[in-house]
Design brief:
The protein is 59% helix and 0% strand. It is mainly α and 151 residues long. The longest helix has 26 residues, at 16-41.
Length: 151
């Protein structure tokens, strides 16, 4: 610590945007690992909407990691569309899962049903809800980083 100024050198401080992007990367990494765990360890077959959510989720792990070393705030312009589209698909999946959207509008006409109940953590956290929450937090983080750096 620099006693003359009472603060740490700039190199020792963590950049807030780096911490936010790291948190977004961590969430997408855990979500990706969870998705693969549910499929390959637990044997839960993904439905069509789950596959679309994976299409938006899996690249986020690589894209966000690239924005961390060195810190590149421009990564938001690539990550935010993926997160926002994943959020929309996950939101639709949750409405379908909850029965708000009629079953006739379900895209899962063959194979695994989009409303298949695999788990219900704490009585309300289904796999579609976990996905929607993850995309919500990541999208929110990316919006905050973009808002902090309006270039």
């Amino acid at each position: 610590m620099n006693s003359a100024e009472g603060s740490t050198p700039a190199a020792d401080r963590l950049e807030p945007d780096w911490v936010l992007l790291f948190l977004a990367w961590l969430i997408t990494s855990v979500a990706t690992a969870g998705s693969l765990f549910f499929s390959y360890v637990m044997g839960f077959a993904p439905c069509v909407l789950c596959w679309y959510q994976r299409i938006f989720l899996f690249p986020l792990v690589v894209v966000l990691a690239r924005g961390l070393f060195p810190l590149d705030r421009a990564v938001v312009k690539y990550a935010l569309p993926l997160a926002a589209l994943g959020w929309l698909v996950a939101g639709y999946h949750n409405l379908l899962y909850a029965g708000i959207i009629p079953e006739r509008l379900q895209p899962c006409t063959q194979g695994v049903s989009c409303t298949e109940e695999y788990i219900e953590l704490f009585g309300f956290l289904s796999i579609p809800m976990l996905s929607w929450l993850g995309f919500t937090v990541v999208t929110g983080i990316l919006v905050v980083v973009q808002w902090r750096n309006p270039e």
